[in-house]
Predict the 3D structure of the following.
Amino acid sequence: MSNSEALERKLDLLIALTRIGIRDQLERERRVLMADDVSVAILRGCQNWVSAGELKSVVMQATKQSEATVKRRISELVSSGALLRRGATRSVTYKTSGLFDL
């Protein structure tokens, strides 16, 4: 087993143990998330890296919500760790972190 494989196994174990320890909190957060159509649409639209503009457009069309609402939810999801963000200005992309199962 290589060093990177050993590290990956240890990190996977750490993640699993952490999830067990905070299972109830994660489930409460997941329920709140799933009750919000905009948040669900964002996370479903980010299974792979997607540009901010494309994501906003798709979610606005699917949910009939304003751009401000969609941007606010994206920001909240990034802050909570449910959504990953990379890039800056016009090259921002998003992807679900996998923290919450959909």
Remarks:
- The chain is about 65% helix and 10% strand.
